[in-house]
């Protein structure tokens, strides 16, 4: 059985869960509290991060970007990447946009300050970081709106890994009630399309002990 | 003519220059002072980062990770990626290791503190960051040595994008004399093999005005 070593509120793990669900692959989730830095886990992934994916033939893949590419190559159908090198480059540009830039400017400032510090016992939230995150998210929601105003999905006419990467980040921030959907209707409409997909259901069923999501989190008509 | 919009000491740009050289592709370098945030450049790449690659058919690719994948797909020969999905995953894991982890733990603490702040006029180097960078680099050089002790190159028997990504970072730190090669002979031997390649020559000829490299920088027998 395939395994995904993960954390429920990690946007990178959520992206891979969405990919696995979209591709209809069976897998088992294994939680790893990465902050404990267990030697057994560091032997699996010296970077000490999740997700780590173990395929049914034992192939082990570390890093969500590498896992995304691996799954696309190994399980091509249904595709989450377009066909030409240039179109793929646009998908990848946006995956990195969300996994690197959005992550640094928004996810780290909000989710990590509010949730990770609490889970890991590494101090209290930094209010300046939270303000920055709440400010930065607006510009990214604007950008999503700008993209879907010109295209059906973020990277083009078909849904791709770029949409899943972006939605994975936003889903974690939605879990802590930090996405101002009302002020960004085009981004909300795009997210609603994703949230309504079958692949999204496991994410909407997540419940982290001690950190209940807001009422609208699992609501498809938010 | 292909163009690479770049900065001479950006490790991400250097990685792509190495790829272009290894693949024997002609291209022209165009320097972009990204910190000026010129509107014309932001229209080309809204992330405001270099490298940006413009292919001979006008295809524009932003983000060094996306450019690396694009070039591999569009100009497959000679290959810088292995054949199987699992082997590619190991190359990608290491590319991300250097472009994300090493970058954050070492390059940002040393190069950005010492050089970028000066070029951009954004203050004086933070001595605490520099100390952290000098400390962190040891553990990465150790890891390189550990890998090449088990494999011919970082990701396996053939030289790949992983070696170029790692060498690109180290070449920028070598430019500012911050790599303790003497204490890590296996990493030094590996770097020497890369530095001796024809693809490396343009990097060794770089000279940033006001920031001369140390004497050993271009020396193949360092």
Automatic annotation (TrEMBL), chains A, B:
It comes from Futiania mangrovi. GO terms for molecular function: glutathione transferase activity. One of its GO terms (biological process) is glutathione metabolic process. Homodimer. Residues 1-79 form the GST N-terminal domain. Coiled coil: none annotated. It comes from the Bacteria. This is Glutathione S-transferase family protein. Residues 84-215 form the GST C-terminal domain. Pfam families: GST_C, GST_N_3. InterPro entries: Glutathione-S-Trfase_C-like, Glutathione-S-Trfase_C_sf, Glutathione_S-Trfase, Glutathione_S-Trfase_N, GST_C, Thioredoxin-like_sf. The lineage of its organism: Bacteria, Pseudomonadati, Pseudomonadota, Alphaproteobacteria, Futianiales. PROSITE patterns: GST_CTER, GST_NTER.
